[in-house]
Amino acid sequence: MAADLSQIVKAYDVRGVVPDQWDESLAELFGAAFVRVTGANAIVTGHDMRPSSPGLAGAFARGAARLGADVTEIGLCSTDQLYYASGALNLPGAMFTASHNPAQYNGIKMCRAGAAPVGQDSGLAEIRELAEQWRESGAPEPAGRAGTITRRDTLEDYAAHLRSLVDVSDIRPLKAVVDAGNGMGGHTVPTVLTGLPVDLVPMYFELDGTFPNHEANPLDPANLVDLQKRVREEGADLGIAFDGDADRCFVVDEQGEPVSPSAITALVAARELARHGGQGVIIHNLITSWSVPEVVEENGGTPVRTRVGHSFIKAEMARTGAIFGGEHSAHYYFRDFWNADTGMLAALHVLAALGGQDGPLSALVAQYDRYVGSGEINSTVDDQAARLTALKAAYADRRDVTLDELDGLTVTAADWWFNVRPSNTEPLLRLNAEARDAATMAEVRDEALAIIRG
């Protein structure tokens, strides 16, 4: 077991290898610490399909109950289903998942009542300190009565809530291939789509935390290959892929071509603005496409640009009262879902938009996909700060560009932009570039990479 819990307590969650880095005894201490830090007298927990998840979630519940909190266990669920329970029941929550990480990993995503995130600056550091302290001195003594542990099924209520937020009653019949990657989408999708005119072609819906078919990480193009092939074979209208805990959704069109998450962000933003009377704030991180703020403004909304990362998105959602937010990584946040992210609700929006008109998805999203992007390109560097300084110096005196340092370094010109951000956990710099045409994008990308890689 790792002596230093900083190895597994990350910026936004707990994550590490089981049992090498953490186990049920530590999960029990995390449960007690969660109750102590949040001051909760009741919490809700859920878990994904990984072999270690039920045991870890159960241990966490015992630790929480030991300190007097009543625990509602919703069992197998997606991360956004746990957020639903936290919001609907107004309880702090803990979700046991390692998202898209390999099978030997597990983790905890924690939130306060109403799905408000718990991160390093909002309770996670204190939870880690208590768990470290108690691991040395022993678990805390019960404070009065022990809490109860009860089970509750929220899947039907979660599905009904999502369907209440998107009108899919009049859509034309659609054929959709859905790749759950043996993750929690296989549990939630059939219930959410019940009663809709969608001919569902399921792929890898069997819950299996060993991921026998491919990693449940659709951000890696290799993990979309099976879905792309099946969409073409089936003559389907679209394909949808979920990650392991089903909080992110990726879309491919009828030709099997991936649809940019920025295009999905713009599409959903336009629909949410229409739903809210043609006005409202839309959050987007600084490496989403120029298309996003353009579409937001064209539809009467106010775009607000933020740093990358869900804690920044959620903080800006709360500060501005935004109705929707989207990230390049296919996380989609909704005010009507407690500002939390839900890939399933984004997927319903795509189905509603596609089914509400007669054209193919490729034509529908073309209006939201106006530029050429590089995708994220990682470079291993010896000194992140020095490479960023060199990059800034290379562009500082150019009159045709502007520089900002909201998150790493962003260089913007009339026809292109690029952003370079340091990884928080690895010796990497991450480059994203975009331009009005492919040749310009390639030139800008290569020029930046030459400086980054020295």
Automatic annotation (TrEMBL):
Matches recorded under InterPro entries: A-D-PHexomutase_a/b/a-I, A-D-PHexomutase_a/b/a-I/II/III, A-D-PHexomutase_a/b/a-II, A-D-PHexomutase_a/b/a-III, A-D-PHexomutase_C, A-D-PHexomutase_C_sf, Alpha-D-phosphohexomutase_SF
Domain Alpha-D-phosphohexomutase C-terminal: 376-448
Domain named Alpha-D-phosphohexomutase alpha/beta/alpha: residues: 7-134, 156-256, 266-371
Recorded superkingdom: Bacteria
Keyword Zinc: no
Keyword annotations: Isomerase, Magnesium, Metal-binding, Phosphoprotein
CDD domains, A to Z: PMM_PGM
Cofactor dependence: Mg(2+)
Family that this chain belongs to: Belongs to the phosphohexose mutase family.
NCBIfam families membership: PRK09542.1 (NF007088)
Name by which UniProt lists this protein: Phosphomannomutase/phosphoglucomutase
Record lineage: Bacteria, Bacillati, Actinomycetota, Actinomycetes, Kitasatosporales
